[in-house]
Amino acid sequence: MTGGPEPISAVAREELERELAELRTEREAVAATLRDGGGDEVGDRADQADELQRADDLDRLDADIQQIEGRLREASVAPAPPSDAVGVGSSVTVRFEDGTESTVQIGELANALDATLVTADSPLGRALLGHGAGDTVTYETPEGRTSAVVVSLG
């Protein structure tokens, strides 16, 4: 990661927007259950504790919404992925030790629906960041240390 605004893939953007919509819906539901604070103290301590819990839930949802909105804003002003070195948002063709090649997208968020996505904080993603075509990278797998060659950046 560069420390500046990082681009995100279209798949990651869609995932963040979906999560944001779900959080907003959940927030509306929780907010609708809170009393308006009119001073009527008609409930027992369990009701008051439940009210406090919902208020805490609302605060957590607001923080999550702000974080995602900020990430989407940041991604919208991020420069394009570098074309000469692997970065977040790059599409990379890699040749593994067994000779197989695979084209992967370096992303920020894991997505089970996108088998070509490699997160930047995964062992392979971390190894690839900053490298260019022709470079050999080494990384850890559950089976041990392995390497791959960056064939091209797309």
UniProtKB/TrEMBL annotation:
<dbReference type="GO" id="GO:0003746">
    <property type="term" value="F:translation elongation factor activity"/>
</dbReference>
<dbReference type="Pfam" id="PF03449">
    <property type="entry name" value="GreA_GreB_N"/>
</dbReference>
<dbReference type="InterPro" id="IPR023459">
    <property type="entry name" value="Tscrpt_elong_fac_GreA/B_fam"/>
</dbReference>
<feature type="domain" description="Transcription elongation factor GreA/GreB C-terminal">
    <location>
        <begin position="82"/>
        <end position="151"/>
    </location>
</feature>
<dbReference type="Pfam" id="PF01272">
    <property type="entry name" value="GreA_GreB"/>
</dbReference>
<keyword id="KW-0804">Transcription</keyword>
<feature type="compositionally biased region" description="Basic and acidic residues">
    <location>
        <begin position="42"/>
        <end position="55"/>
    </location>
</feature>
<keyword id="KW-0648">Protein biosynthesis</keyword>
<feature type="region of interest" description="Disordered">
    <location>
        <begin position="31"/>
        <end position="55"/>
    </location>
</feature>
<keyword id="KW-0805">Transcription regulation</keyword>
<dbReference type="InterPro" id="IPR036953">
    <property type="entry name" value="GreA/GreB_C_sf"/>
</dbReference>
<keyword id="KW-0251">Elongation factor</keyword>
<dbReference type="InterPro" id="IPR022691">
    <property type="entry name" value="Tscrpt_elong_fac_GreA/B_N"/>
</dbReference>
<protein>
    <submittedName>
        <fullName>GreA/GreB family elongation factor</fullName>
    </submittedName>
</protein>
<feature type="domain" description="Transcription elongation factor GreA/GreB N-terminal">
    <location>
        <begin position="7"/>
        <end position="77"/>
    </location>
</feature>
<dbReference type="InterPro" id="IPR001437">
    <property type="entry name" value="Tscrpt_elong_fac_GreA/B_C"/>
</dbReference>
